[in-house]
Amino acid sequence: MEVVRTLRISNDLGLHARCAAKIVALAGQFRSKLYFRKDGHEVEGSSILSLLTLACPKGTELMVRAVGEDAEAL
Predict the structure, then answer these.
(1) Predicted model pTM
(2) Is 41 one of the catalytic residues?
(3) 14, 16, 19, 37: which is the annotated catalytic residue?
(4) 70 and 38 in contact (C-beta within 8 Å)?
(5) CA distance 40 to 9
(6) DSSP 2-58
(7) Per-residue model confidence (pLDDT) at position 46
(8) Which partner for 37 in 1, 31, 42, 65 could form a disulfide, CB atoms 3.0-4.6 Å apart?
């Protein structure tokens, strides 16, 4: 199963290390894989450094894709 959503960063500080760490921790609780895409560049949501390479300030739109058996729950 695959679930795709578009998200907008609303945090004034953008997607920073603490937020990225929370995403990675959440993604680790599921069997599905989580991916983030910005400007044609896609990274896996299981790596803090990969998420930070997207450089997402406030207002950035990201495509988020969950792939796997529990993708909807993720």
Answers:
(1) 0.91
(2) no
(3) 16
(4) no
(5) 17
(6) EEEEEEE---TT-S-HHHHHHHHHHHTTSSSEEEEEETTEEEETT-HHHHHTT---T
(7) 93
(8) 42
